[in-house]
Write a structure and sequence with these properties.
The complex is a heterodimer.
Chain A: H1 20-52, H2 83-116, H3 121-135, H4 139-151, E1 161-163, E2 167-170, E3 173-176, E4 178-181, H5 185-213, H6 218-247, H7 253-267, H8 273-296, H9 302-325, H10 336-354, E5 358-361, E6 364-365, E7 370-371, E8 374-376, H11 378-405, H12 408-416, H13 421-451, H14 463-475, H15 478-507
Antiparallel strand pairs in A: 1-2, 2-3, 3-8, 4-5, 6-7
Helix pairs in contact in A: 2-3, 2-11, 2-14, 3-11, 4-11, 5-10, 6-7, 6-8, 6-10, 7-8, 8-9, 11-13, 12-13, 13-15, 14-15
Chain B: E1 25-36, E2 39-50, E3 54-58, H1 65-72, E4 80-85, E5 88-89, H2 94-103, E6 104-107, H3 119-131, H4 135-148, H5 164-176, E7 182-186, H6 194-209, E8 213-217, H7 221-227, E9 230-235, E10 238-243, H8 245-250, H9 255-265
Parallel strand pairs in B: 3-8, 3-9, 6-7, 7-8
Antiparallel strand pairs in B: 1-2, 1-4, 4-5, 9-10
Classes of the chains: A mainly alpha, B alpha/beta.
């Protein structure tokens, strides 16, 4: 900043007003004075107006009884609770819907974003249509759509639509069973934790040996292949049992399913693995599509649904086949199936051995309403669903931009070195794309959190609804309530951006 | 391009290892055509490269030189004809593509180093994940090649901290770490300052001295004169003329070649 450098001692002095340092100071002082004056004027004006209306101010109302109802609260709430408890209820409700929204929007958004870059014409087009439709419709409109047009037009309580697993959907929301674990179930929880740790240790060890010696340890290769086959068998078996037992019932479907599933599993160990994988994909996709389409378009004849499902499953199977058939045999693959088997199998074994029970309290229709179970109010479902769908379209674009921002030359360099597609993505493309994706992704998370305040419009008792709406009208302390809400949202935002700044600093590219 | 340096290195080039095989074919391109949509980029290319040959491809921009060598390791796919590399014909079969890419190294105009990895990690990534070489061994090999390109002290820096010439030398070392039998150079010096061009060409010459089979797309006619044993001239997607460098420069046959050389040499 200084104008004098070594050897320029004799340089002519800059005139007072042309010195950039002094100018800078003058500008800042002027701005500060204007700002402070403005704040004083606003505060004084407000205080005078409040005094003229004989209104009291201060935060003492927080320790007074609120005296209103809140329809959905995670914390204990009654009319006799205090205002500060209302604040906490609002905050937890906001955090709940924001957390669920962020988790699902991230999963959906990444999927759609990658799908939009797919070389498959239909997949890419569908993703584009989704993004362009959803992000160009105002969020409030979408929330009203999900709330009034979808959930509120559900049948009345007595005509509730039964969903699988003892769940019901009606005007008052979605009723799901509430898990009530018994004493022994604690062991299962312990087993889950232990299995996760063991799987993590084995995975880490295998990866370490892989980088150090260039091979996965022998002790893991065969168990890994075996686990692959077991998982293949189980998945194929379940899909086939559903297929042959429910969709196209045939006599003695269990042994037939077992034989076919075993054939698929054995096939996956030989050099016909691609065919086995395609078959597995076909079975699973067919069963899933059939169930989903049958549920969504219940007026369409079931033969039609099956035909379309078969077609979709066939296409997916073909895609999987062509993706695996041309691939070199990967005898040194990361033993993912083994780890999954440990994580799922060990707790299942403990569950069976200890005789633990995980009972579910099923919602039961009584005279006027459901009793028992867990009730998700339609306001919550509509808001979580709407925020997820809406934000996912923006996240999808962020993800697409991030992947496309990585120079095409990076892909070419990786390809010319012979890196396979998976390694190329994992080691070269994703680490670079994440740098581009993370900052705008943070903004989307913040947006989602703040957009959750639109829940007020459909009556979900989140922070703004509880503390901005009801509390203000009950207590009359508008300025205080608004100030608190602003501080809370600001805190959320600052914490999020602090974490993201830390992350950005950590992954910054070193240049010069 | 006015000052095409006649000699790149002042020293004599050691030709003792630079034999061209009479029988072993490294690359065979037969009646190959390629289109971008309706645009016919490569027309009826026929090119046989013997083991140990050093070929320079020259030609005006847009003539398909880069596209041709990018077809050889399948960064671009051809629509007609055959490309056979080390006896493996390139088709849509990923297994064959992997096989070819393991034998063929490539150096790009813009280096394409991985900016998020250190120089050493850039060099060891492919050996570890493609060849399954133990990390310690891969690092030793990487250091060996870094010494060969004369920048072992940069091993723990990031690409962004290096000059263009250094980055290109790292890129060459990165390819060499995979121990390829054929090297493709796609205008390796076009993005460099004149001073740095020399240090990169030095490395390429020392590679040639070891008998590496090389195909270079370059405008460095001095390099072509000193190192190549065949210069290929392309225009509008066709090979117009090919000859030994002496003949090519002193006695060009085709009108288009004469025009090109007159523009590039004076």
């Amino acid at each position: 900043m200084t104008t004098r450098e070594m050897g320029h001692d004799a340089a002519p002095r800059v005139s007072f007003f042309n010195d950039p340092v002094i100018r800078g100071i003058i500008y800042q002082v002027v701005v500060a004075v204007i700002l402070i004056g403005f704040i004083f004027w606003i505060v004084g004006n407000t205080a005078a107006n409040l005094a003229a209306q004989n209104k009291t101010n201060g935060f003492d109302f927080l320790w007074k009884t609120a005296g209103f109802d809140i329809s959905f609260a995670l914390l204990p709430w009654s009319r006799a609770s205090y205002y500060w408890e209302a604040l906490l209820v609002g905050i937890t409700n906001t955090l709940l819907v924001a957390f669920i929204g962020i988790v699902f929007a991230t999963m959906l958004g990444f999927t759609i974003g990658v799908a939009r870059l797919s070389s498959n014409f239909i997949v890419a087009r569908l993703a584009a249509v989704y993004i362009e439709t959803i992000r160009n419709i105002p969020l409030l409109l979408q929330l009203f759509f999900w709330y009034f047009a979808v959930l509120k037009t559900m049948p009345a309580v007595r005509q509730s639509i039964a969903l699988p697993f003892d769940s019901f959907i009606n005007q008052r929301g979605i009723m799901v069973p509430r898990p009530t674990p018994d004493q022994e179930f604690g062991w299962v929880m312990v087993a889950i934790v232990v299995a996760l740790i063991v799987a993590g240790v084995i995975g880490g060890w295998a990866a370490r040996i892989r980088t150090r010696t260039g091979r996965y340890p022998v002790q893991i290769v065969w168990p890994g292949k075996l686990a692959d086959a077991v998982v293949t068998f189980l998945v194929a078996f379940v899909a086939l049992v559903v297929l042959l037992g429910v969709v196209f019932p045939i006599a003695s479907f269990v042994p037939v399913s077992a034989i076919v599933a075993a054939a698929v599993a054995l096939g996956s160990l030989t050099r016909y693995a691609a065919i086995a994988k395609a078959a597995l994909t076909f079975f699973v996709a067919f069963v899933l599509c059939n169930a989903l389409l049958g549920f969504m378009f219940s007026w369409v004849p079931s033969l039609m649904v099956s035909l379309i499902s078969a077609l979709i499953a066939l296409v997916l199977g073909q895609v999987v086949y062509s993706n695996t058939a041309n691939r070199p045999p990967s005898d040194a693959r990361f033993p993912l199936a083994l780890l999954v088997l440990i994580i799922v199998g060990v707790p299942a074994l403990v569950y069976w051995l200890t005789g633990a029970t995980l009972a579910f309290e099923v919602p039961v229709l009584e005279r006027f309403n459901f009793k028992g179970g867990l009730q998700l109010p339609p306001e919550f479902v509509a808001l979580a669903f709407g925020l997820t769908i809406y934000t996912a379209s923006f996240i999808a674009e962020t993800v697409r931009a991030g992947i496309q921002a990585v120079n095409r030359g990076q892909t070419e360099a990786a390809q010319s070195l012979g890196l396979k597609d998976g390694d190329r993505l994992r080691l070269v493309i994703v680490p670079q794309a994440m740098r581009v994706i993370i900052p705008p992704l943070t903004s989307q998370y913040l947006n989602l959190t703040k957009n959750s305040s639109l829940g007020a419009a459909i009556g979900y008792p989140e922070l703004f609804n509880v503390f901005g709406g009801t509390s203000i009208s009950q207590s009359g302390r508008a300025i205080e309530c608004m100030a608190i809400i602003m501080v809370v949202y600001l805190t959320f935002s600052l914490i999020t951006s602090a974490i993201m700044n830390w992350y950005n600093a950590r992954v910054r590219l070193v240049e010069r | 391009m006015s000052q095409v340096s006649e000699t790149i290195v002042e020293r004599e080039i050691d030709t003792s290892h630079m034999q061209v095989s009479k029988t072993e074919v490294a690359i065979d391109v037969i009646n190959m055509h390629k289109w971008y949509g309706d645009f016919h980029v490569l027309r009826d290319i026929n090119l046989r490269v013997m083991k140990g040959e050093r070929i320079v491809i020259a030609g005006p921009s847009g003539s398909g030189k880069s596209t041709l060598i990018r077809c050889i390791n399948r960064l671009e796919e051809h629509q007609e004809g055959q490309i056979i590399v080390n006896g493996t014909e390139l088709t849509a079969d990923l297994k064959r593509i992997d096989e070819v890419r393991r034998e063929v190294g490539m150096v790009f105009q813009h280096f394409n180093l991985f900016p998020h990895l250190t120089i050493l990690q850039n060099l060891t990534l492919a050996p570890i994940w493609v060849r399954g070489i133990p990390k310690a061994e891969a690092e030793a090999t990487a250091m060996h090649y870094l010494e060969r390109v004369k920048i072992p002290e940069q091993a723990n820096k990031f690409p962004g901290q290096l000059s263009g010439g250094q980055q290109q030398r790292v890129a060459i070392a990165r390819s060499l770490c995979m121990q390829p039998r054929i090297m493709l150079f796609d205008e390796p010096t076009s993005a460099l300052d004149p001073e740095m061009v020399k240090e990169v060409l030095e490395v390429m010459i020392s590679l040639a001295e070891e008998g590496m089979t090389m195909i270079c797309v370059t405008h460095e006619m001095g390099f072509a004169r000193q190192v190549a044993n065949r210069v290929i001239f392309m225009d509008q997607g066709q090979i117009i003329e090919q000859n030994e460098p002496e003949e090519f420069f002193s006695n060009p046959q085709h009108e288009r070649t004469k025009l090109f050389l007159s523009q590039i040499l004076h």
